[in-house]
Amino acid sequence: MIYLYLFITFFEIGLFGFGGGYGMLSLIQTETVIHHHWLTSAEFTNIVAISQMTPGPIGINSATYCGYTAVRNAGFGNLMGIAGSATATFALVLPSFILMILISKMFMKYMDTPAVQSVFTGLRPAVVGLLAAATLLLCNEENFSSPISNPWQFWISVALFIATFVGTKYVKVNPIHMICWAAFAGLLLLY
User: Fold this and answer.
1) Contact 27, 127 (CB under 8 A)
2) Which of 11, 62, 135, 166 could form a disulfide with 91 if both were Cys (CB 3.0 to 4.6 A apart)?
3) Residues 54-61: contacts with CB under 8 Å, at least 24 apart
4) What is the CA angle 115-121-122, rounded to 5?
5) Ranges under pLDDT 70 in the chain
6) pLDDT tens across 113-150, in order?
7) Hey, CA dihedral for 162, 166, 169, 175, is it positive or negative?
8) pTM of the prediction?
9) Which residues does 17 contact at the CB level (< 8 Å), separation at least 6?
10) Cα–Cα nearest to 71, from 45, 43, 39, 116
């Protein structure tokens, strides 16, 4: 039964997840963590981190890991978890695949019309809002700790956040290098 729920959930996310993988993250988190309780917030954060570090689109990678983790958390084994990965990934990609086949010829013909341009003008703020929601949903106590419970981890997390933001935005450091440095800093926090 969990496979049906996984399919429906990720199909809906794929259908309404405008803005690519990062735009889908808030939808994936809301459905898997808050609505269905398949994952904890900490598990979802780890999934996002792994999804960013592995090759491929972050939305598809997240769906793959979420499907596996959801089935494993439901008490099933590794093979069933792999089937959960396949189900979630297929369901996420299916709406885009169908829509691209149906509208690809029409879009090329009508993409310069005012109506189509107006639709894209309206979608841009929604995409920015989804990206902002994904960012804000990940800024929680599980990721940053708190100044009361663990001030050392909180301030190190804030410093890493600021350093990564400044490094990628203003200094133009390669994001892959920033990920490696942040991972190294995280390892240092363990000790």
Assistant:
1) no
2) 11
3) 57/20, 57/21, 58/21, 58/22, 58/25, 59/17, 59/20, 59/21, 59/22, 59/23, 59/24, 59/25, 59/28, 59/92, 60/21, 60/89, 60/92, 60/93, 61/21
4) 95
5) 19, 189-191
6) 888 888 888 888 888 887 788 777 777 777 777 788 88
7) negative
8) 0.64
9) 23, 24, 27, 59, 92, 130
10) 39
Domain ranges of the chain: 2-141, 145-191
Distances 172 to 27, 82, 163, 168, 178 between C-alpha atoms, Å: 29, 38, 12, 5, 10
Separation CA 78–CA 71 (nearest Å): 9
Task: Tell me how far CA of residue 50 lies from CA of 57, 137, 139, in angstroms.
Answer: 12, 17, 17
Q: List the structure tokens of 43.
A: 């598990």
Q: Cα(62)–Cα(44) distance, rounded to whole angstroms?
A: 9
Q: Give the C-alpha separation, 77 to 90, whole Å.
A: 20
